[in-house]
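Thread: quick sanity check before group meeting

JM: Hey all, I'm pulling together slides for Thursday and realized we never actually wrote out the predicted structure for the chain we discussed last week. Dropping the sequence here so it's in one place. If anyone has concerns about the input, flag it before I start.
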Amino acid sequence: MNTRTAEAPGRVGDVRRRNLALVLGRLGPEAVATRADIAAATGLTKASVSSLVADLLETGLVEELGVTRAGERGRPGVGLSLSARRGALGAEVNVDYLAVGVVDLHGALRFHEIAERLNHGRPTQEVLAELAALTARATQAAGAEGIELLGGGLAVPGLVDPDRGRVLTAPNLGWRGASLGQALDALAPGAPYGVVLTNEANSAALAELWYGRGAELGDYLYISGEVGVGGGLVMGSELFAGPGGNAGEVGHMVVAPGGERCSCGGRGCLETVAGQDAILAAAGIPADAGESAAARIAALASALAAGDARALDAVGRAGGALAVAVVGAARLVDLSAAVLGGHFAALREWIEPALAAALDDLAPGLLAPGAIAFSDLGTTAALRGAAGAALRRALGAPHVLLP
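JM (edit): ok, ran it. Output follows.
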């Protein structure tokens, strides 16, 4: 007798768990539905849907809106929606700042705070202790608005092992082999879905998919412009991280063989031409320990607006280097678009023409008009993505919240 597990019928509990997630998948901030709507869309019986909805109401993930709409045979039905009273924490450690935020199940950013800090070379635990103070304020603010945190995510600019909560290497922070361990859970104590470590650019790429323009762009490369340059690949509406989890590291694609030495140890990486510090240095805007990165970018924008030749040349070179990276990625995996965030979005007025001209020269017709987009999410992108991933863990396994 054939007893292969794959062909055995699922346990009743497993089926119910899948159906709970199936029902949740029919709801959203703008996807209001009645029980009858859900039954028709999923093929489940009305009795099953009513039972499943009763459980989901108990989890707090779903709420009844109290509005009616035409149901079967004209009878009114109670509208159901994801609850804005459930949310997740997003946190980010970057080279020159710490940031935290709370995103609810409707995708709204309900709290956001940035603290400018120079984090390069600081002890990991010192940084995390300061971040925990920020997340405590975020948790308190969420509670004051009646929002219960389901979980969270911490985004860092480096290669990570999320399963072990370990930063493999983050050159621009000076972190290598840093085990964050219990410090992660301490960022959102008691959250049922925990806190997961993520790569900053990957989280930003997902935020663009969920909360930005990504859904309309198809398969795209997200390029994050900070002190370093990060990247994330979204293909088939999912993050493509590769077998080792580190695909999309566009900042360390070689675009200038024989060029400057990079923080990764290589030479001629995109980061050495288009990274924040590289552009500012080439533009003649010196580093000042008392001046924030945002202030230096603003100074660069002023120089560009005034027609400063050195600034224009620096941004033009960055645009050309970005084009080399985008063309290489598009040729390799047949991408249809690229999205630029961070300082690239802030400098759009000047970097976009240089990028477009270089793309036309290097690979005319490779990407359709409008295929290069600039993110509107600003400094919230990575933390939105980290929080959004936590929310999706909850929506995929709502049974965790049941007794």
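AS: nice. Residues 1-10 have pLDDT under 50 and may be disordered. Residues 309-333 form the longest helix (25 residues).
JM: adding both to the slides.
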